[in-house]
Amino acid sequence: MSLLKVAVLGNPILRQKTPEMKKSELLRESVQRFIDDLIETMREYDGVGLAATQVHQPLRIAVVEVQANPRYPQAPAVPLTVLVNPVLTPIGSERARDWEGCLSVPDMRGVVPRWTQIHVEAMDRKGNPLSFDASGFFARAVQHETDHLDGIVYLERMEDMRTLTYMREYARYWRDKETPDQGAALG
Ligand code: NI
Q1: Nearest to 141 by CA among 49, 72, 8, 3
Q2: Tens of pLDDT along 149-177?
Q3: Please, are residues 5 and 55 in contact by the beta-carbon 8 Å criterion?
Q4: Which domains does the chain have, with CATH numbers?
Q5: CA of 108 relative to ligand 1 center, distance in Å
Q6: Suppose 42 and one of 19, 50, 107, 131 were both cysteines; which one would form an S-S bond, judging by CB atoms 3.0 to 4.6 Å apart?
Q7: pLDDT of residue 17
Q8: Is 145 a catalytic residue?
Q9: Which of 25, 40, 44, 145 is catalytic?
Q10: Is residue 30 helix, strand or coil?
Q11: What's this model's pTM, rounded to 2 decimal places?
């Protein structure tokens, strides 16, 4: 396995809308190897998600994982999930605002509204159908990563650009010390 280089804002790959993947393409050995590298890269950079476009591949694949962190016992753990061709449908109309960060927008945080609950249809890495509901932080991470596959970064989802904050100022003025730093690690 190998670590992949993460593209940052300004790189045109981040604006590319990825085409739907065929199962035969997904099952190629090179693509399966790429998925392993995507997972390894997400973990290396402490992301809770990573989309293929963020590592320069215009493939409709994203990974999400939240490992239990003893420092943040309230942070809900999410098992490793590989999403191919994810299609999201909001459940209900409730949205929640919370801080997000992105490995492709280094050193910044901003407040982003997201659907609180979503239904997800996708394929897993073997091409089997995946169908599940997600809520809260997991739902947020899935929406953030799926946006990447459509060439969208969280900045475009912000309602109030005045919340855009450098990490140092975020830690100084905005981070609630009692709750997990949920924005810290989104991919
Ligand atoms: Ni991101």
Answers
A1: 49
A2: 999 999 999 999 999 999 999 989 988 75
A3: yes
A4: 12-178 (3.90.45.10)
A5: 11
A6: 50
A7: 98
A8: yes
A9: 145
A10: helix
A11: 0.93
